[in-house]
Design a protein that fits this description.
By secondary structure, this protein is an alpha/beta fold. The chain folds into four domains: 146 residues, Conserved hypothetical protein from pyrococcus furiosus pfu- 392566-001, ParB domain (Alpha-Beta Complex); 42 residues; 53 residues, no CATH class; 49 residues, no CATH class. The chain contains 15 helices and seven strands. Strand 3 and strand 4 form a beta hairpin. Helix 4 crosses helix 5, helix 6 runs antiparallel to helix 7 and helix 8 packs across helix 9. The N and C termini lie close together (7 Å).
């Protein structure tokens, strides 16, 4: 029997980062407001518009929401999202019902009475457009690493975070904070191959990355363009001709063989990609398969894109039976 899909667990990841469920709920997407709500309600978190120093201290200590003037909040420097377009529906919701979720902020060290947004920048921008004067906030003291992780987790819960922004967030966790791909996968509720394949998008030229970010091509099409001689030209062709990933992989393989003078394997099929050295990810995957199957394993890219050839060295029929049993076991 097939197993039910595992939950992504992003909410629990926030709770682990923040230390409690209550504050994690501040950055989890809220349920739609009921239609029978009052036509001119106040924000869901009631608090005085002007908070005293004592109230700010109690809020930070007790993790309870308070209200601050919207002008005291600043965009987060660790925010992984680069585009905030398409928030008109959120603006209308804020006008209708107020801001139903508090914004997570941390105090700015170099500016008095100012706070950096950790989670909720879309809501803050929508509140500005809705001409709110005060917004509910939760104040926490959070370091840069947790700020980046929380921003990533919050945005991964929404479908409109682009694959490029996601990849750049992962890259920052690796480069700036020495996380491994396994660390990120566990923390974000993703698979390690998903993290690795997303980061690969950053190997594309900036112009093609922008096409992925703008939604002109999908992340799958973008990955199929990695290693192509002229990825920008092929990306434009993919858009003009509405090519699928499979179409693009076939076209990319033909282009590569033509560039090599019609070369390929003896049977007319495209061979492994150009004899280039295997990446650390490929070698690690080979090792995992060898440990799981007890066989010599070779994994090689075939042509371009993500097509791969997996070779297992099997000594005799007994060993073959063992492999078949492992691969078909339920």
């Amino acid at each position: 029997m097939s197993q039910p899909p595992k939950p992504r667990g992003l909410g629990r990841g926030l709770s682990a980062l923040l230390g409690d469920d209550e504050v994690a709920s501040a950055v989890t997407p809220a349920a739609p407001a009921p239609l029978a709500a009052s036509p001119s309600p106040k924000p869901a978190v009631a608090a005085p518009a002007a908070s005293t120093d004592g109230e700010l201290a109690r809020s930070a200590a007790n993790r309870m929401p308070i209200t601050l003037p919207i002008g005291q909040l600043r965009p987060g420097k660790m925010q992984p999202r680069t585009s905030f377009e398409g928030i008109e529906a959120l603006v209308e919701s804020v006008k209708e019902y107020g801001l139903l979720q508090p914004i997570l902020v941390r105090p700015l060290r170099d500016a008095a009475d100012s706070y950096e947004i950790i989670a909720g920048e879309r809501r803050w921008r929508a509140a500005q457009k809705a001409q709110l004067h005060d917004v509910p906030v939760v104040i926490r003291t959070i370091d840069d690493l947790d700020a980046l992780q929380i921003g990533l987790v919050e945005n991964l819960q929404r479908s409109d975070l682009t694959a490029i922004d996601e990849a750049q967030g992962y890259k920052r966790l690796i480069d700036d904070y020495k996380h491994t791909q396994e660390d990120i996968a566990r923390m974000m509720g993703r698979s390690r191959p998903h993290v690795a394949n997303t980061i690969r998008l950053l190997d594309l030229p900036p112009a093609v990355q922008e096409m992925v970010r703008d939604g002109q091509i999908t992340a799958g099409l973008g990955r199929a363009l990695i290693g192509v001689p002229d990825p920008l030209a092929m990306a434009r062709q993919a858009v003009a001709e509405k090519l699928t990933v499979r179409d693009l992989e076939r076209l990319a393989g033909d282009t590569k063989r033509k560039a090599k003078g019609g070369g390929g394997s003896a049977k007319g099929k495209p061979g492994p990609a150009g004899g280039s050295p295997k990446t650390a990810d490929t070698r690690a995957l080979e090792k995992r398969l060898e440990e799981a199957l007890g066989l010599k394993v070779d994994l090689a890219l075939r042509g371009l894109g993500e097509q791969s050839v997996l070779t297992l060295e099997i000594r005799d029929f007994d060993q073959l039976d063992t492999v078949v049993d492992k691969l078909t076991r339920r």
